[in-house]
């Protein structure tokens, strides 16, 4: 049975649920940062998914990327699946800007997270969810 890793639960907000994956928003207002987590028990690597699941995962990832590009109009979208701390398969989708505080370096460990204010978090989650619905992930 699928369970979201406790660190992702702790650090993220639920945006929506897609056919294969959960879409989470990293609770750090310094970067538009979403995380896609396939709801597959025990998946640690993309290769742990069936071929059909891999295809669906990449469809959902592309849809999330398009939604974030539409919402934030970033200079660059960064996608990463590291899993060094959180072993559960998850892919980071981070909208990067030449003016963000970590540019051009990776965002990990650069600056302490600044959580969203509740109303801002709700607005971001709703906007991303609505764009995903329009794009039909």
Automatic annotation (TrEMBL):
Superkingdom of this protein's organism: Bacteria
Pfam families: HIT
SUPFAM superfamilies: HIT-like
Gene3D superfamilies, alphabetized: HIT-like (3.30.428.10)
Domain HIT residues, every copy: 1-103
Name by which UniProt lists this protein: HIT domain-containing protein
Annotated organism of origin: Bowmanella yangjiangensis
């Amino acid at each position: 049975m699928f369970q979201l890793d406790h660190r992702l639960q702790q650090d993220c907000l639920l945006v929506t649920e897609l056919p294969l994956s959960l879409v989470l928003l990293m609770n750090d207002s310094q970067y538009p940062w979403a995380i896609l987590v396939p709801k597959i028990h025990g998946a640690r690597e993309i290769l742990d998914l069936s071929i059909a699941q891999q295809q669906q995962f990449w469809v959902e990832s592309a849809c999330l990327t398009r939604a974030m590009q539409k919402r934030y109009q970033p200079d660059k979208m960064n996608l990463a699946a590291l899993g060094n701390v959180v072993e559960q398969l998850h892919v980071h989708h981070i909208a990067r800007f030449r003016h963000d505080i970590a540019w051009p370096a990776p965002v990990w460990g650069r600056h302490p997270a600044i959580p969203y204010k509740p109303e801002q978090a709700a607005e971001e989650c709703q906007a991303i969810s609505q764009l995903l619905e329009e794009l039909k992930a």
